[in-house]
Amino acid sequence: xxxVRVGAVxxxxxxxxxxxxxxxxxxxxxxxxxxxxxxxxxxxxxxRLLFAxxxxxxxxxAVFACGLSIATTILVTLVLNVVPGGVRSWTWAFSLALxxxxxxxxxxxxxxxxxxxxxxxxxSAVNRRDVVLILLACAIxxxxxxxxxxxxxxxxxxxxxxxxxxxxxxAGKPAVRITIASVERHxxxxxxxxxxxxxxxxxxxxxxxxxxxxxxxxxxxxxxAQRVRVKALLFRAxxxxxVYRRTTLWMKTTQATR
Length: 258
Prior knowledge:
It is a single chain. The protein is of the alpha+beta class. Helix content is 46%, strand content 28%. Strand 3 and strand 4 form a beta hairpin. It is elongated, with a radius of gyration of 31 Å.
């Protein structure tokens, strides 16, 4: 009876994977199948595999099943990230189903052993199980550290650029400080047009920034008004006539200038 139940876990995992990949017509209901595949089924199959010969009660089985399921999902995701195909809905769903089916296929063999184990055999089984769990924990820890310190590729990611204005001064005269920050995926060239009081006062060309780099420009503000609006327009070289960023700053000058 135990082997039938464990085998049913593998069948359920395969069914959940099929629903996750092809069950878009189910709408939000598909999330329930995904949760079962991520949080329950792989861990339950592994619990029956690792703890064969030493039955666990319901609460401990649930805790171990959930923990091992999350650990398996993390490891599968890390592996898929470095293999062709990457992390996609169908790759992780079928990978989790494959792990569950494999564990379910092996678990009945261990479960079918003798019911009465002598202390030395039981101690050996517990030691093997502890070693497996420790190795699994070390693998998760190492993979987590590697993931945290290694930038992952994102072929479909889109970068962006930011621009903001601040009041400044140049040689004691009012000026506006323009900061441009690039979070683009590639080296990008920009052009900045500065308007003071509605009139174009300066155009700055050929500003090139690498990803993660920023540039600060200082443009004098010469006006007789005590309060003036400064507008900066940012253009990218790839679209020279399309305003990419537009920022406005109202400045109160300390003294009128000619």
